[in-house]
């Protein structure tokens, strides 16, 4: 059986399907390789927005995890985030003839367009499950089910396991141990459980959004960077700290990775269906 993995990333969906005996093909706009962490099946580098679903007429399953950062951002209490959310609501509700330069649901909607095109080409229904964050619900509709902080839309099985899962619980990413230049990224890695992806990946909880190193207990600040934080920054001077740095991208990719127990459950369910 063949599974197509859209926005494949590090292959959380794929790993579970491979473990259950499926063949998998992943699609992503870039190849994610962070030391030993990488996609473990055939990967096609292609912008998902340019895909026509007819090329998946032979697939038995489609899974997708479109990027969640935009939904997480506009859920933040920042003025800029609130302004963006207001603009998105206006474009959604007003019927404005003007094109919105930042269409919030483009990637999410592309998944269902691709599924419709695949089904039409195949002459049968090809099931699809899409994963995103809780904050997507005001914009795309209520999720069919959620696995901890992993929210699911589409052809979600009617019976799902009652489990609670945090995104990569206790995850510690040590960049220098994974062959990536620079220090380390450490995080509890919970994806948007009422808070934000940004709190984890951009460490806004420390009171200094540009600092990716956790602040020791008792040393949180709201503006002035104290001596202890300065010392920790100096210890991490060899690591790039920009939002596009390799360490940051690796950490966010790991946080977004679908847990194997979830992907294996979906794979087993659809392997049994006629």
Describe this structure in words.
- The chain has 274 residues and is α/β, with parallel strands linked by helices.
- Helices cover 32% and strands 15% of the residues.
- It has helices spanning 12-19, 69-74, 79-94, 106-122, 137-140, 197-201, 227-235, 246-256, 260-272, and strands spanning 2-6, 23-28, 33-34, 37-38, 42-45, 61-64, 128-132, 145-147, 150-154, 172-173, 185-186.
- The strands form 3 sheets. A 7-stranded mixed beta sheet has the order 5-2-1-6-7-9-8, sandwiched between helices. It has a two-stranded antiparallel ribbon with strand order 3-4.
Features:
274 residues, alpha/beta, Rossmann fold, 7-stranded mixed β-sheet, two-stranded antiparallel sheet, 11 strands, 32% helix, 15% strand
Assign the CATH topology of the largest domain: Rossmann fold
Work out the helix count. 9
Order of strands in the sheet with the most strands? 5-2-1-6-7-9-8
Please identify the structural class as seen in this structure.
Answer: alpha/beta
What's the SSE pattern?
EHEEEEEHHHEHEEEEHHHH
Number of domains: 2
Overall mean pLDDT stands at 75
Note the topology.
Layout: E1 2-6, H1 12-19, E2 23-28, E3 33-34, E4 37-38, E5 42-45, E6 61-64, H2 69-74, H3 79-94, H4 106-122, E7 128-132, H5 137-140, E8 145-147, E9 150-154, E10 172-173, E11 185-186, H6 197-201, H7 227-235, H8 246-256, H9 260-272
Parallel strand pairs: 1-2, 1-6, 2-5, 6-7
Antiparallel strand pairs: 3-4, 7-9, 8-9, 10-11
